[in-house]
């Protein structure tokens, strides 16, 4: 995906940061970067639209409601009505494909998938791959709809010169990384952070992280950084994702490779900003981009100390991040810019 302005072309809910809550270290809140910071696709609920047309917005809202209620034909009818007005949203077009598939209209579903890819392949791919970003697809990711998606995506990959074997490997790594993490919030909410269930979940996550790191290191040795030109925009961030889930020594080891990849457009600069901040905060230094949020002893959330804070929003803009004031709201607190 692209810049935050580009995200305004798509219907999506308000961005809800996914929190990395490991019991193995001090409780620090950070976005896990399942997807690009500040431009993720979220589940149900609308916040931004492809067009401000009232009839379009109303139809899309109805379609989402029907999708939630598993009423495929009314859902499909509502999307058809919306698309007669405008069809600029890859996310809504993928959701229309889901409604068509649920109504056993496979050819129409395939058509919508193709249209979504033509609108924005990275959004279409994000919607299908990401368990947390688009949970409405979770029940069909292992169904015959998978074959429809795979066929359309493979055609697009061939056009882009994507390495299919490498992409398949990275997608498998991505899924194993995200599946257990998708349970973190629910386990914490139901059992709490001091529970056996919480400890077992994170033990499993750390085991998966170790396995995935070995795989990613082997791929980097073979291909260099496996970025956008080799595997596409979405999975071009997977190697970075696994590295940023690793110990800080590993993060520092691969920092130069990741920086080159970001500079060359092979991975998102927003993700690079998060990793730089993470390393700096771990080492007791001030962060540069304000991506790291901590929980104070009084239960209040706040940013870890920021270097040259008066210019932080300028630095954030340079890497595609929005203002810190808006970022803070995603965590439920207010940020007041420094006057120094």
**How many alpha or pi helices?**
16
| Count of DSSP strands | 3
- Measured between the Cα atoms of the first and last residue, the distance is 35 Å
Global shape: globular
Pfam families: DUF6624
Structural features, described:
The chain contains 16 helices and three strands. With about 350 residues, the protein is an all-alpha fold. The chain has two domains: about 15-25 and about 165-330, no CATH class; about 55-160, Serine Threonine Protein Phosphatase 5, Tetratricopeptide repeat (Alpha Horseshoe), CATH 1.25.40.10. A three-stranded antiparallel sheet has the order 1-2-3. The longest helix is centred in the middle third of the chain and has 28 residues, at about 195-225.
Outline of the structure:
It holds the Pfam family DUF6624. By secondary structure, the protein is mainly α.
Output the keywords.
single chain, 57% helix, disordered N terminus, 340 residues, mainly alpha, 2 domains, TPR-like_helical_dom_sf, 16 helices, 3 strands, DUF6624, Serine Threonine Protein Phosphatase 5, Tetratricopeptide repeat, three-stranded antiparallel beta sheet
């Amino acid at each position: 995906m692209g810049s935050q302005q580009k995200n305004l072309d798509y219907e999506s809910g308000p961005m809800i940061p996914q929190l990395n809550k490991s019991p193995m270290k001090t409780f620090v809140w950070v976005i896990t970067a399942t997807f690009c910071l500040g431009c993720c696709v979220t589940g149900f609920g609308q916040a931004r639209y492809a067009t401000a047309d009232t009839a379009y917005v109303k139809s899309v809202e109805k379609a989402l409601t029907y999708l939630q209620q598993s009423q495929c034909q009314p859902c499909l009818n509502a999307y058809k009505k919306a698309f007669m007005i405008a069809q600029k949203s890859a996310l809504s077009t993928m959701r229309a494909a889901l409604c068509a598939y649920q109504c056993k209209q496979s050819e129409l579903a395939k058509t919508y998938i193709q249209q979504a890819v033509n609108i924005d392949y990275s959004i279409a791919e994000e919607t299908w791959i990401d368990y947390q970003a688009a949970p409405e697809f979770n029940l069909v990711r292992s169904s015959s709809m998978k074959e429809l998606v795979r066929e359309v995506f493979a055609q697009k990959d061939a056009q882009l010169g994507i390495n299919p074997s490498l992409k398949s490997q990275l997608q498998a790594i991505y899924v194993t990384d995200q599946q257990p993490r998708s349970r973190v919030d629910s386990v914490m909410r139901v059992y709490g952070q001091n529970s056996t269930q919480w400890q077992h979940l994170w033990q499993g996550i750390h085991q998966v992280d170790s396995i995935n790191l070995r795989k990613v290191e082997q791929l980097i040795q073979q291909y260099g950084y496996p970025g956008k030109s080799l595997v596409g925009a979405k999975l071009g961030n997977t190697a970075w994702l696994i590295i940023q889930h690793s110990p800080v020594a590993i993060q520092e080891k691969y920092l130069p490779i990741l920086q080159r990849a970001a500079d060359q457009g092979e991975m998102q600069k927003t993700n690079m900003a998060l990793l730089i901040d993470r390393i700096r905060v771990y080492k007791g230094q001030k962060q540069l981009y304000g991506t790291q949020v901590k929980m104070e002893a009084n239960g209040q959330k706040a940013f870890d100390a920021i270097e040259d804070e008066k210019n932080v929003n300028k630095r954030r803009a340079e890497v595609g991040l929005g203002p810190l004031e808006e970022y803070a709201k995603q965590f439920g607190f207010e940020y007041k810019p420094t006057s120094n």
